[in-house]
Amino acid sequence: MPSKKALVRRPSPRLAEGLVTHVERQPVDGELALAQWEAYGAALRAHGWQTVEVDPADDCPDGVFVEDTVVMFRNVALVGRSGAARRRQETPAVRDVLVERLGCSVNRVREPGTLDGGDVLKVGDTVYVGRGGRTNAEGVRQLRAAFEPLGARVVAVPVSRVLHLKSAVTALPDGTVVGYEPLVDSPAAFPRFLAVPEEAGAHVVVLDGNSVLTAASAPRSAELFADLGFTPVPVDISEFEKLEGCVTCLSVRLRDLHT
Ligand SMILES: NC(=O)NCCC[C@H](N)C(=O)O
């Protein structure tokens, strides 16, 4: 039976200092962010996910975006090495949880490779990896070396218009890739691509075969998903969106653990 665990990490008191690359810096309300993070975790738990908290990293403003620190394929983890040097101290505590509490096999991206988990989208056994600002060619090679022997088919795609591949595209439970077309470098890279009407509509977290977590800021995309027979579960993550975060980046789902 597949596991339903999800790593999350409490926002740092320094969240407002998080990196911004493609957006203007805006003031972040720390209290509201914490309340939004709690509600996000509650939405995961309401759909059967057990949330596992990585130790907080108060000195890492972007630590809450835990998705970027690791990529899972089956029960094997590849701990990333961020293209943003400032984010590299986020990974040791994530590795500790994976090894000591969850019993995963753990590999890691090594210099000169860089890879952020936000650049990796899995659709079945296909692993799309965005080659962009945070993930370099050597990171792509190391991802292939780690996961292809386990049965993954790694497909590299360019990312130039947004921070991460998953800022541009994610996938519905039926494997359809959804994206906001003006921000997708190559929609043709995906066998089934569906354009959504809002930038934040490109971001979904699959909760189960029917439900997807969506951003409250993308109501028209949520309507589109409902019209296709899915149940959107909107969460307000406005404070994280100000830092280029999206619903995917606040958790790492672990679906194939043996524990
Ligand atoms: N996977 C993601 O979409 N992560 C968002 C990371 C945002 C953070 N402020 C950063 O620039 O690294």
Could you explain the architecture of this structure?
- Belongs to the DDAH family.
- Its EC number is 3.5.3.18.
- It comes from Streptomyces cremeus.
- By secondary structure, the protein is α/β, with parallel strands linked by helices.
- The chain has a single domain (2-258), classed as L-arginine/glycine Amidinotransferase, Chain A.
- Helix content is 22%, strand content 23%.
- The chain contains six helices and 15 strands.
- The chain has helices at 30-46, 91-101, 137-147, 165-168, 219-227, 238-241, and strands at 5-8, 50-53, 70-73, 76-79, 105-108, 120-123, 126-131, 153-158, 169-171, 177-179, 193-195, 205-206, 211-215, 231-235, 252-254.
- The strands form five sheets. A three-stranded mixed sheet has the order 2-1-15, covered by helices on one side. Strands 3-4-5 form a three-stranded mixed sheet, with helices on both faces. Strands 6-7-8 form a three-stranded mixed sheet, with helices on one face.
- Strand 13, helix 5 and strand 14 (231-235) form a beta-alpha-beta unit.
- It is globular and about 40 Å long.
- Bound molecules: citrulline.
- Residues 18-19, 21, 62, 65, 67-68, 84, 87, 118, 163-164, 166-167, 243-246, 248-249 line the site of citrulline.
